[in-house]
Each structure stands twice: as structure tokens, then as C-alpha cells.
Amino acid sequence: MNHDEAFHAILESKYARIINAISKLHGVSTEEATNIFYNSVTMQLIEDGVADLHCRSDKYLAEEIWSEWEEQQNG
């Protein structure tokens, strides 16, 4: 496994933990949390390696993504 493959494997595991955190923290289904996560700008920033967001805690990122989603709903 090369560096890029390893990094993406780690990210996929982190994504699962963030989705789980969104679901538990905000009482939504895993399916809804998954949709919120994958449709967020923050997820794309993590994927693109912006500001080392992948180094932030799962809970922090879950809350950022939730806040982003709430703003979109109230927008």
C-alpha cells in the first residue's frame, strides 16, 4: 500500500467516526448523518487536505458539519 492509499484508508475510517458522531450527538439516523456529511463543504475540505482538518477531532468535525448543515437549512 502506497502513501496515498494509506491516507485514504485512514480518511475513510475517520469519515465513519464523524458520521457516527453526528448521528449520536444530534439524534439522527446513520443514513441521515451520512447524507449530511457527504454533502458538506467541510467534507470536501477534509478530502482536499485543507488546513489539516483531518487532524481535528471527530467530535469537532461532526459539530462543524452539523453547524454547516443547520445554516443551509435556515439559509
Report on this model:
The protein is built from four helices and no strands. The chain starts with a helix and ends with a helix. It has a domain at 25-69. Helix content is 77%, strand content 0%.
Provide key terms for this protein.
mainly alpha; globular; 77% helix; 75 residues
Count of extended strands: 0
Give the percentage of residues in beta strands. Answer: under 5%
The amount of helix comes to over 70%
Strand and helix order: HHHH
Largest sheet: none
Helical segment count: 4
Average pLDDT level? 94
Oligomer: single chain
Can you give me a brief rundown of this structure?
With 75 residues, this protein is an all-alpha fold. Helix content is 77%, strand content 0%.
Architecture blueprint of SSEs:
Layout: H1 3-26, H2 30-38, H3 41-48, H4 58-74
Helix pairs in contact: 1-2, 1-4
